[in-house]
C-alpha cells in the first residue's frame, strides 16, 4: 500500500509556492499530485518554463482539480481572497488544508473552523511557518505579562499585499491574552500626519515597513521605566519557512479541527 501524503500546491509560481514544490519533492513520503495556477490551465508543471520538471497536471479551478485528482492535503500560498475559496473548497472535498496565505478575516477563520469541525478533518492556517518566528511570538506573549507597553514593528519586501502582516496580527492577538487593553503614549497625543502612530490593536501600535531588499522581519519592543526589551526575528529567505510547512503537513493528517498558528502545535 502507498502511504504517501498526496499534496496539491496552490500558487506554484510564487516565491513561497516554488519553495513548497521543492520541499514536497525532497520529502520521501510527500507526493505532489497537482498544482493550482490561474495561468497554464491544462498544461503539465514540467511544461512551464522556470518551474520544476515534475509531471503533474495544472488546474486553474480547485473544485475541478479536487474532483479529478485524489489528494490528502492542499498547501495554499496565494492571496487572501483566493486562499479563502481554496481552503473552503478543499474542506468540502475532504482534503486537509495547510494555509500559509495571510490576510483572512476573523469571520472567515470562524467559518472555516466550523466547516473543518463539521467535516471532522484537520486544517492548519499558519500566519508564519518559521520556527524562530513562532518562538518570537511566544516569548513576546510571556514578556507582555511584565511589560504591558509594547509596539510591534514588522518589516517586509515591497511586493507584500497585506498590512499589517499576518504575523504581526497573530503576535498582537497572543500578547493581548496576557495584556489588558490599554492606551499607550501620552493621553493627549495627536498625529500631525495621519498614521504616524501606526495601527491600533487594543492600544498596542503596529508599524509596517515595506522596502525592497527585505524578506520578512519583526521586532517586538517593550518599554518600562528605565529599561526596554526587544525581541526580534529575521527570515532571510523563504527556505526558512519550509520546516514549518513540513511539520504542518505531517500534523494536519492527525487533526480533526482547524488550528490557527503553529504556536498551538510546537511545545
Ligand atoms: N505563513 C508563512 O510563513 C508565510 C506566508 N506568506 C504568505 O503567502 C502568500 C504568498 O506569498 P508569496 O509567495 O510571497 O507571494 P507571490 O506573489 O510570490 O505568490 C503568490 C502566488 O499566488 C498566485 N495568485 C495570485 N492571485 C491568484 C488567483 N486569483 N488565483 C490563483 N492564484 C493566484 C500568484 O500568481 P500570479 O503570478 O498569476 O499572480 C502567485 O503564483 C502571501 O499571502 C504571504 O503573505 C509568505 C511567506 C511566509
Ligand atoms: O508576505 C510575506 O512575505 C510574509 N507573510 C507572512 C505574514 O504576513 O506574516 C509571513 C512572513 O512574515 C512572510
TrEMBL record:
Keywords: Amino-acid biosynthesis, Cytoplasm, Diaminopimelate biosynthesis, Lysine biosynthesis, NAD, NADP, Oxidoreductase. Its EC number is 1.17.1.8. Pathway: Amino-acid biosynthesis; L-lysine biosynthesis via DAP pathway; (S)-tetrahydrodipicolinate from L-aspartate: step 4/4. PROSITE patterns: DAPB. The keyword Oxidoreductase applies. The active site is at 156 (proton donor/acceptor), 160 (proton donor). One of its GO terms (molecular function) is 4-hydroxy-tetrahydrodipicolinate reductase. (S)-2,3,4,5-tetrahydrodipicolinate binds at residues 157, 166-167. Coiled coil: none annotated. NAD(+) binds at residues 11-16, 100-102, 126-129. It is found in: Cytoplasm. Residues 132-265 form the Dihydrodipicolinate reductase C-terminal domain. SUPFAM superfamilies: Glyceraldehyde-3-phosphate dehydrogenase-like, C-terminal domain (SSF55347), NAD(P)-binding Rossmann-fold domains (SSF51735). Pfam families: DapB_C, DapB_N. CDD domains: DHDPR_N. PANTHER family: 4-HYDROXY-TETRAHYDRODIPICOLINATE REDUCTASE 1, CHLOROPLASTIC-RELATED, DIHYDRODIPICOLINATE REDUCTASE. Catalyzes the conversion of 4-hydroxy-tetrahydrodipicolinate (HTPA) to tetrahydrodipicolinate. Homotetramer. NCBIfam families: dapB. Belongs to the DapB family. This is 4-hydroxy-tetrahydrodipicolinate reductase. It comes from Lederbergia graminis. The gene is dapB.
Amino acid at each position: 500500500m502507498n502511504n504517501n501524503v498526496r499534496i496539491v500546491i496552490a500558487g506554484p509560481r510564487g516565491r513561497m509556492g516554488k519553495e513548497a514544490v521543492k520541499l514536497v519533492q525532497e520529502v520521501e513520503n510527500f507526493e505532489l499530485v497537482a498544482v493550482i495556477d490561474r495561468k497554464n490551465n491544462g498544461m503539465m508543471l514540467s511544461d512551464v518554463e522556470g518551474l520544476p520538471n515534475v509531471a503533474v497536471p495544472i488546474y486553474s479551478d480547485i473544485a475541478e482539480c479536487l474532483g479529478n485528482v485524489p489528494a490528502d492535503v492542499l498547501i495554499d500560498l496565494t492571496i487572501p481572497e483566493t486562499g479563502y475559496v481554496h481552503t473552503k473548497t478543499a474542506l468540502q472535498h475532504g482534503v486537509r488544508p495547510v494555509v500559509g496565505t495571510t490576510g483572512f478575516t476573523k469571520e472567515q477563520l470562524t467559518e472555516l473552523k466550523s466547516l473543518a469541525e463539521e467535516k471532522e478533518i484537520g486544517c492548519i492556517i499558519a500566519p508564519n511557518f518559521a520556527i524562530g518566528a513562532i518562538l518570537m511570538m511566544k516569548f513576546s506573549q510571556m514578556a507582555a505579562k511584565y511589560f504591558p507597553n509594547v509596539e510591534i514593528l514588522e518589516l517586509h519586501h515591497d511586493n507584500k499585499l497585506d498590512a499589517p502582516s499576518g504575523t504581526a496580527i497573530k503576535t498582537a492577538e497572543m500578547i493581548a491574552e496576557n495584556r489588558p487593553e490599554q492606551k499607550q503614549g501620552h493621553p493627549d497625543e495627536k498625529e500631525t500626519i495621519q498614521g504616524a502612530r501606526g495601527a491600533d490593536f487594543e492600544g498596542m501600535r503596529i508599524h509596517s515597513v515595506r522596502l525592497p531588499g527585505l524578506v520578512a522581519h519583526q521586532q517586538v519592543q517593550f518599554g518600562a521605566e528605565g529599561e526596554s526589551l526587544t525581541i526580534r526575528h529575521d527570515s532571510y529567505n523563504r527556505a526558512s519557512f519550509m520546516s514549518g510547512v513540513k511539520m504542518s503537513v505531517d500534523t494536519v493528517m492527525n487533526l480533526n479541527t482547524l488550528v490557527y498558528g503553529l504556536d498551538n502545535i510546537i511545545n
